Each structure stands twice: as structure tokens, then as C-alpha cells.
């Protein structure tokens, strides 16, 4: 990818986002987001290129939270159930 910064420098970078089929064709104009102090770490402005990592991490976090909650509820339920196999020994 090649773009021009606000001060007129031409920057060339390789996007880390890949797709098949390609999301953009050669020569297509796209919006680019970049830090003026580090223009080589630019990203194409798009939902997947910006939000794919947060979406994956959120999904994994939700899965682990659900599993942890289910295990905690199961353990609590097991600990609070009366022991039906216990025999009364008294006198």
C-alpha cells in the first residue's frame, strides 16, 4: 500500500490484514489511518482491519467467563447439596 501523509511524504507499507478474495483491488483508493510520528505503522480504515483483534479477544474472554461461571455454579451446587448417602448415627 502507498499513501501520502499530510506533509506530503509518500509512505509505503504492508497491511497485516489478509482476505481471500481480496477486500480491495490494485489501484483502489482507500482511507488510511496512521500516527504522524510513525506513519509506517498505518492501517487501512475498515471494520476488520481495525477491530478484528479486539473482536477475537472479546469472544475468547466471553467463552472463558462463561466456562468459569458454569464451573463455579456447579461447584457451589455440589457443595450445598445434602449428602443423601450419609446415615444418621446418633444416640
Main β sheet profile: 2 strands, antiparallel
Average pLDDT over all residues: 84
> Helix and strand succession?
EEEEH
Structural class: alpha+beta
**Radius of gyration from CA coordinates:** 27 Å
Low-confidence stretches: none
Q: Looking at the chains present, what oligomeric state does this protein adopt?
A: single chain
- By DSSP, the count of extended strands is 4
Approximate helicity band: 25-40%
Shape: rod-shaped
Kindly estimate the percentage of residues that lie in beta strands according to DSSP: 15-25%
Distance between the termini: 86 Å
Can you count the helices?
1
| Spatial order of the strands forming the largest sheet | 1-2
Identify the notable features of this structure and list them briefly.
two-stranded antiparallel ribbon; 4 strands; alpha+beta; 37% helix; 1 helix
Quick overview of this protein structure:
The chain has 91 residues and is of the alpha+beta class. The chain contains 1 helix and 4 strands, in the order ββββα.
Structure, explained:
By secondary structure, the protein is α+β, with helices and mostly antiparallel strands. The strands form 2 sheets. The protein has a two-stranded antiparallel sheet. A two-stranded antiparallel ribbon has the order 3-4.
Amino acid at each position: 500500500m502507498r499513501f501520502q501523509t499530510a506533509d506530503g511524504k509518500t509512505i509505503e507499507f504492508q497491511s497485516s490484514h489478509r482476505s481471500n478474495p481480496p477486500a480491495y483491488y490494485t489501484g483502489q483508493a482507500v482511507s488510511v489511518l496512521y500516527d504522524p510520528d510513525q506513519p509506517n505503522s498505518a492501517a487501512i480504515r475498515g471494520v476488520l482491519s481495525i477491530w478484528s483483534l479486539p473482536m477475537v479477544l472479546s469472544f475468547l474472554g466471553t467463552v472463558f467467563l462463561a466456562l468459569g461461571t458454569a464451573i463455579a455454579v456447579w461447584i457451589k451446587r455440589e457443595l450445598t447439596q445434602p449428602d443423601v448417602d450419609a446415615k444418621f448415627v446418633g444416640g
